[in-house]
Structures are given as structure tokens and as C-alpha cells.
Amino acid sequence: MTLETPRIVLDPAVLAGKPAVRGTRLSVEFIIGLMAEGWGQDDILANYPNLTRDDVLACLAYARDGLRLERAYPSAA
User: What's the mean pLDDT in 59-74?
Assistant: First the structure.
């Protein structure tokens, strides 16, 4: 998985290197968390006017790509 994208960056000087929206201190985890709590895209954009629709979509794509690599293996228990 490519970690950085044009909109998502990992910078050790910003949020201890967590994936964040470029030019902000808003992590992908935070944006996905808002959506998990029921916030819609319009709610996010209204409360964080420095974000764009493409930024929110980039967060979703980043999370999707991370999950694509996740695997669960049954235990022998």
C-alpha cells in the first residue's frame, strides 16, 4: 500500500506521523471517526471549511486501502 497520496500525508512533525489531510492537522482516523459517529460529508465540510469533498473521499479511500490488506485467520483453538 502506498502510504502517501496527493491528499494524505505522513509527516513525523504533524500528529506524530499519523496519516493526515495535507495542509491540516486533521487525521484520517479523526475524519473516519466523525463518519462512524453519524456525521455526513456535508456536516464535516460545514464544521471544517478548510477541507474539501475530495479530502473526505481521500480519507475513505485511505481507510479502504488499509482494510484491503487486512486478513483474519482462524485460530487452531
Answer: 88
